[in-house]
Amino acid sequence: METSTELLLVLLFAIGLIVFLIMKVHLHAFLALIISCMFVGFGTGMPLEKIAASIQAGMGGTLGFLATILGLGTILGKMLEVSGGAERLARTMIRVLGEKNAQWAMIIVAFIAGIPVFFQVGFVILLPLMFSVAMETGLSLVAIGVPVAVTLMTVHCMVPPHPAAMAIALSLHADVGKVILYGLLVGLPAAAIAGPIFINHFCSKKIEIKPPTGSVKTERTPDEKLPPFGLTLITILLPLVVMVSKTLIELTVPKDAALMPIVSFVGNPITAMLLSVFVAYYTLGFARGFSMKQLTGFTEQSFAPVATILLVIGGGGAFNQMLMDSGLGKEIAKVLTSLQMSPLIMAWVVAIIMRFSVGSATVAMMTAAGIVMPVLEANPGLDPAYIAIAIGAGAIGFSHVSDSGFWIVKEYFGMSLPDMFRTYTLGTVVAAVIGLAGVMVLSTVVG
Q1: Rounded to an integer, what distance in angstroms lies between the CA atom of residue 334 and that of residue 353?
Q2: Structural domain boundaries enclosing 353
Q3: Averaged pLDDT, 140-149
Q4: What digits encode the pLDDT tens for the residues 246-281?
Q5: Which of 63, 185, 225, 435 could cross-link to 190 by cystine, CB 3.0-4.6 Å?
Q6: Of the candidates 416, 411, 401, which has an alpha carbon nearest to the alpha carbon of residue 212?
Q7: What is the DSSP string of 271-301?
Q8: How many CB atoms within 10 Å of residue 231?
């Protein structure tokens, strides 16, 4: 039986192995995670037959539920894209808030439009709007675009049904409705302070960039070809409203009430997302003149990017399972609880260190959840929804050259590396710090 020190050294080497394989060998994150799982199994002396069984259990337990949510979420995001819903949201918000406040309008749009889609997809969907708004308002593209990118990353890490946010909520056995509600309460201020306030006032004034040729949208879609604002907003927010409503009803209605089974069924993330997809098929599909054959084509197109993210999340789930099955989880709990540090701060620190190390916010969140989970078990009075938000907040920060999203922003905007570090990277750090402050305040006030 290994000593506590030896077990912890295995953990450190396993994390270092993930970082090395991703950063130096350029191995895919999924393969890096699975290799590290086996390293943990060998290093802790697990029976060989249990190593593969633990990986299988971790993959299955993580993806059994999440794959359905992720598939439905990508359909919803695709419908927002093909219908012109994102463009409608942007135009209406800018008209209401005024051109002088265009950057505020755009982060609201990014927060809403980013809910059902990956960071990369949301960025590409909103990219033409960023260029158009910058040209029409005379504002710097940095002032418009970088806050949008930071906002999309904030939503990506903190608000289910985003895959990583949903995955850690399930891993920590947190109420999804609470995670959504807390994510909105903490994420919106974090995105606002890191975007229009911090970046626009301190970072963007001296930066002039010239976007790559051909990236600027020159044709404006006629208003009559876009879906109505209210209908688009309701469609995109419907799954969040349904899931949060379930949580609020459960807090106010007795558990043995006759309607509770119906509330639980309708408010289940799978039911809520499925309902929203069919609403989107009508409001953003049939109502816009698309045929069923076209909607089926859009659905098939939306599944293409899902495989990679599913495998990475599954690999993270396998790594977490291996930590628990190998006995490392108990040792982690002993060490972390002995530090006399707030579990929320601890979760945030682990997540932001992993984010800086491996680049992927998803890998950082899944790894942090596995490391912090034993501490949560040692603090049964702490709502796991707060831990989920703290992990998400930490995973926002320090997006740099190891993050694929960093390069997407850089190349589309044609920015230099120093300018990216001064704006986008620094903006993600500010959002992460504000996110930690927000969840600390929220946990104190709400309890």
Answers
A1: 20
A2: 4-446
A3: 87
A4: 888 988 888 888 889 999 999 888 898 899 999 999
A5: 435
A6: 411
A7: HHHHHHHHHHHHHTTGGGT--HHHHHHHHHH
A8: 17
Number of domains in the chain: 1
Q: Supply angle C-alpha 56, 62, 63, rounded to 5.
A: 90
- Positive or negative, the Cα torsion across 378, 383, 384, 389? negative
- Size of the chain, expressed as the number of residues it contains: 447
Q: Positive or negative, the Cα torsion across 138, 143, 149, 150? A: negative
In degrees rounded to 5, what are phi and psi of residue 261?
-60, -40
- Residue 102: band (very low, low, confident or very high) from pLDDT cuts 50, 70, 90: confident
CA distance 117 to 124: 11
Spacing of C-alpha 223 from chain mean position:
31
d(CA 350, CA 353): 5
For tokens 């992993």, the residue is: 354
Distance CA 39, CA 45 (A): 10
Q: Per residue in 56-101, pLDDT tens?
A: 998 888 788 778 887 888 888 789 888 888 788 888 888 888 878 8
Q: What percent of the chain clears pLDDT 70, i.e. is strictly above it?
A: 93
Tell me how far apart the alpha carbons of residues 406 and 95 are, in angstroms, rounded to a whole number: 30
CA distance 108 to 103: 9
Indicate whether 213 pLDDT > 70: no
Q: What is the pLDDT of residue 275?
A: 94
Give the contacts of 117 (CB within 8 A, at least 6 positions apart): 73, 74, 77, 80, 81, 125
Global pTM reads 0.76
Both tokens assigned to 394: 């930490």
